[in-house]
Write a structure and sequence with these properties.
Distance between the termini: 56 Å
Strand content: under 5%
Shape: elongated
Number of strands: 0
Helix content: over 70%
Largest sheet: none
Radius of gyration: 23 Å
Structural class: mainly alpha
Oligomer: single chain
Order of helices and strands: HHHHHH
C-alpha cells in the first residue's frame, strides 16, 4: 500500500474518529438518562428551552453592545483608548453570546436526530397496524414542526454574523487608528449597526416564539 498520500487524509480521519467518539458519548448519555426515567423527548424539550433562553440572553447582550457603541461615538479625542476598550469588550461579549447560541442549537439537533431515529426504529415493533399508523403520523408531524423551528433558529443565528463582523471591523480599526477620524468613522457606522441589531432582535423574537410553540406542542403530544 502506498502511504505517501496518507498525511493529506489525516484531518478527515481525525474528524471522522472525533465524530464517532462524540456519537458514542451521546448514545451513552441518552441511555444513562433513560435508565433514570429521562427520555430523549424530555432532553429535547430541555435543550430547546435552553437554546431559547440563550437567544434571549444574546438579545440583551447585543442591545448592551449597541449602547456601548453609541456611547463611544460621543467621546472626546482624549478618551480614544477608552473608546477602543468599550467597543472591543462589546464585540468580545457579543461573540461569546453568539457562540453559546450556536452551541445550544447544535445540542438541540443532536438529541432530535437521536429521538427521531429511535422513534422510526420502534415503529417496526408495533403489532397493531392502527397504532403504528397513528405513531407514524405523530412522528411525521413532530419532525415537520421541528424542522420549521430549526430553520427559524438558524435564520436568527445567521443574523448575528453581520453584526459581529461590524463590531470586529470597527474594534480593529479603532485599535490601530486612535484618533478623531476613527471616532468619526464609528459615528458613520452607528446607524447601520443599529438597524442590523434591530433586525437581529426581530429574528430572535421570531425564533423564541417558534421555540415556545414547539415546546408546547411536544409536551402536549
Amino acid at each position: 500500500m502506498n502511504t505517501r498520500y496518507l498525511p493529506r487524509f489525516y484531518p478527515l480521519i481525525i474528524a471522522a474518529l472525533f465524530s464517532m467518539v462524540l456519537g458514542a458519548c451521546s448514545t451513552t448519555y441518552y441511555n444513562a438518562m433513560e435508565k433514570i426515567g429521562v427520555h430523549k423527548r424530555d432532553i429535547l424539550v430541555d435543550r430547546v428551552e435552553k437554546a431559547r433562553d440563550s437567544q434571549s440572553d444574546a438579545q440583551e447582550q447585543f442591545k448592551s453592545a449597541l449602547e456601548q457603541f453609541g456611547s463611544v461615538v460621543n467621546l472626546e479625542q482624549t478618551e480614544l483608548k477608552t473608546a477602543y476598550e468599550r467597543v472591543n469588550s462589546a464585540y468580545e461579549d457579543s461573540e461569546a453570546a453568539a457562540k453559546d447560541v450556536s452551541a445550544r442549537i447544535d445540542k438541540v439537533e443532536s438529541v432530535a436526530e437521536a429521538l427521531f431515529v429511535e422513534w422510526a426504529e420502534e415503529l417496526e415493533l408495533y403489532q397493531n397496524p392502527e397504532l403504528k399508523r397513528a405513531s407514524r403520523t405523530q412522528l411525521n408531524q413532530t419532525k415537520s414542526r421541528y424542522r420549521s423551528m430549526l430553520a427559524v433558529m438558524h435564520k436568527a443565528e445567521k443574523s448575528m454574523e453581520p453584526v459581529l463582523k461590524t463590531f470586529r471591523d470597527n474594534a480593529l480599526f479603532l485599535k490601530h487608528n486612535l484618533n478623531a477620524q476613527a471616532i468619526g468613522s464609528l459615528r458613520y457606522e452607528f446607524s447601520e449597526l443599529q438597524e442590523r441589531i434591530n433586525r437581529l432582535i426581530r429574528e430572535m423574537n421570531t425564533s423564541i416564539e417558534s421555540s415556545n410553540r414547539f415546546i408546547d406542542e411536544l409536551t402536549k403530544s
